Amino acid sequence: MERIAIITPCILPVPATKGGAVEGLITRIIEENEKKNQFIIDLYCIKDENSKEIKYNSTHLLYVDRSPIIAFVDNKTDAIYRRIGSNSKRLLDKKVLDLFIERTNELEENYSAVIVQNLMSTAIEIVNFCRGKYEIPVFFHMHNCVDVYRSPQYIRELVKAGVQFIAVSNYIKDEILCCDKNAVVNVLYNGVNQNNRIKKDEKEKATKFLYSGRIIPDKGVKELVIAFSQYIDRLDISERKEYGLDIIGFSDKKTHYEKTVIKYAEKNKDNIHCLKMISSEKILQKYYDYDVVVMPTQNMEPFGLVALETISRGIPLITTNSGALPEILGDGAVIIDRGASFLDDLEKALGRLSLDYEYRRTIAEKGFIRSKKIADFNIDNYYENFVDVISEKCENATVSVIVPVYNVEQYLDRCVNSLINQSYTQLEIILVDDGSTDSSGMLCDAFAQKDQRIKVVHQQNQGLSAARNSGLEIMSGDLVFFCDSDDYLNTDAIKSMVTKMYRDHADIVACGIMLTGDKEELFTNENCGMWSGHEAVIQMMRTNNICTVAWNKLYKKHLFDAVRFPIGVLHEDEATTYKLIYKAKIVSFTPVPYYYYYQRNSGIMGEKISDRSHYYIDALKERVLFFEQNKEDNLIQHSLISLLDGIKYIYRNTDDKKIKKKMTQAYKESIKKWKTPDIMGVGKAMSLLLWECIRY
Predict the structure, then answer these.
(1) Among 172, 278, 521, 540, which residue is least crowded by beta carbons within 10 Å?
(2) Number of other residues whose CB lies within 10 A of the CB of residue 71
């Protein structure tokens, strides 16, 4: 059974003995998991010392030490962060991390997933700890709008690290994508109990209005008091007595804003009642006592759970076009624009719902129907929807392994047998004989006779790119893997990479490369990694993990839509792989060397660099132009650095004076056209600029 970690905000306890929307949803997950028994869950949370500890069979409660001193300091710094608008940090995050490290060291296997709930500073700590050491997919569940705790900078950092987002609405999804268009965002709606009865409304006139929630400026409570007062002030004294507005949510120790609201309500104190906060369970029971609920929200609402609770009971709702509210409510509520005429529009809405019975019932019925019609609003579906987000199903995907074959009779047996003997058997092995003049073509046919999973294509010699493209044209698999015919794979290569692809929700999985031949040594980086496609392009250019080669990677088939290898050129991987990585949402790398690369001087890459230098430089130039066309400024700069470094490499590794002259000219033209890239710092920029004058 898979083990996952859920890291709560550690503000309120879970199980949700003291309320809290986020805490309630997490409680729902662990309680449903007790029934479905799909995961073993490690729940990082704080303890409610006043409640009896609940025992679970499938959930381990790991308590974070939130001492009074830490709570005091974090509360004080919270006020500072909010005032200056800086990225928030908490002392408590270190406590969460310490517990996470301790638990990780105890486990025999890594978590299948880590889900961090709503506090990005915690997610940053977890990601930084796991980076390069643990192959664990991390999800960030975002329940609130972008702010100091969920800042644009934090979002960009998490996206680079391949963290996937879970948003409570499409509105929050759009906010995340505005911060970084490369983010992978799944929408998981909050839900409500769908067993609520519809309120019976037989009154000709609606007179009892309710606001329930926090009494803060963002909620528009003062504006509601003003609009309600304006409306009843226009009524006759006898008629006015029928009307009442209950405002539930005042604290014992009144804030400045609460005192302001009470002052505005004082004028109509017989009609407007300022009441203390009560539990969410009690307020849900009181909904049916009212004719209309009002949510005059002024800030951006991330979801609108109170709004959904209201319409699911068939109670007319007045609210605003804040954040996700229009998305959630549709035509099932009266939605007011928060513009200059807001007070007048709110007063009119109060009046119309009060006096127009048919309109009131129509709004209530539309809301009730909408809450039932959208299955994701049903809390009973919440757990399964959560599982679908974090667990991508493999379902025996077929992997098409494409092997270009040209005059490799002495190596082909080793290569193909390593594919036939893979522990993952759902394979389609495509051998493309590219006009071999030795016995390679006949060997391909012989293999096809032995294993029905093998398909053979015979074609005139057109080169490596054409051979790969032929394989892509006839493949029927869901995933693609390339293997050069003189190389071979570890027996568990495909199985391990398929498992990793679906666990990480990756579009590309790259593995480590072991050089073989005269000596055996690891070619790639020893650190694992997971990145957005955008960041993975940079990793490909700057580090030795993903690499530009096509053949140490498992790809999802859709990446090759409109992408093929260029025919008739060398360094075809330099011209192609970056496009596939750029299209990918998530790219994952395991350092385990599943791919064995056999070095031989008679191969394509054994040719003298002077004979293939122009192909290499052309491919690097095309990369710069590609990202220029896609308006990717930082990828342009990184590609330009690769181009300039590539020119220097060829210059240093050839004795051909004509080639040296061409490289010098190409270097100067590139600097003149694109300027000196400075994305890697002043030192690198200066060295690139200096080389134009002093070649070394």
Answers:
(1) 521
(2) 15
